[in-house]
Amino acid sequence: MDSYAPPVPTPHPAPEAHPPAACLNCGQPLHDQFCARCGQAAATHRITLGHWLHDIPHSIWHVDRGLPYTLKQMLRRPGATLRNYLAGQRAPYFRPLSYLLLITGLITLCYVVLRLRPYNVADPAVPPALRAVQERFLAFFSKYINWFAVLLLPLSAGVLRLFLRRARYNYAEYITIACFVTGTFHFFALLALPFLYLLNGTRGGQQLMMGVLLVSFGYKTWAYASLLEPFGLSTFGRYLRGLAATLSTYFITLAAALTILVLVNRKEFTALVRQKTAPAVAHPR
After folding, report:
1. Each residue's pLDDT tens digit, 215-261
2. Can you tell me the distance from the alpha carbon of 252 to that of 158, in angstroms, rounded to the nearest whole number?
3. Residue 239's CB: how many other CB atoms inside 10 A?
4. Which of 133, 148, 262, 274 is paired with 68 by a 20 to 30 Å CA distance?
5. CA separation for the pair 282, 215 (Å, rounded)
6. Where are the alpha helices (DSSP H) in the chain?
7. Residue 42 DSSP label
8. Each residue of 154-174: b (16+ CB within 10 Å) or e?
């Protein structure tokens, strides 16, 4: 009799990877590329070095859209961008507070690391005592500029609500407008920092920053005026309200900065006041 030989099993190909039937984050059944409950992508993959190299620029800049896209739109068409965001078109844009803090944080980093001085340190008309006051204020302001920008938002929003009230946004929406416009306003200062580094502590550097301030004034006025385009105002009326909002927010910022200047140098100012108000001592003949 012939001996029986069992059949040799043929190897099966490895099964293809399929997306899970439920979200790996929250367990919600999946019906699309993203979870309807928490937003996590349905397709996940093992973390590798290639994943990190791909993810780093996206995490920092949201290169696909995010920060560059928001900045581009705020520079090209600020009014339409703000109206779209407030109307609910928010997915393509960077979050407003993150937008402001990231740009402002980059300015802070440059000022601290490069020891930038936006004024003429060799000006003979400024006495040494006043120069020391400037240095203490700059050191404090450079360290806490992010907090300063955030604390000014409620005041700025109140001013915007007053002068841009024709748009009929609520107070929180004016805070959002202030975040986006102020962040873009700070971007102009960020662009000027490489040139300020070359002119650091000189009269030319001081003039450069004054020029940046004027350009930023023009941008803010245009941004606020363009926000009001659909609300039945003439061009003159829109720009008049935009200019009033810009000047008012500037004076609020200036008043807050002067208050910080006095608080940081309170000992010096107290001594100066006492010196000015002390009665003159009569000298014997």
Report:
1. 999 999 999 999 999 999 999 999 999 999 999 999 999 998 888 88
2. 11
3. 17
4. 148
5. 55
6. 49-61, 66-76, 78-86, 96-114, 128-163, 171-198, 203-227, 235-264, 266-277
7. S
8. ebbbbbbbebbeebebeeebb
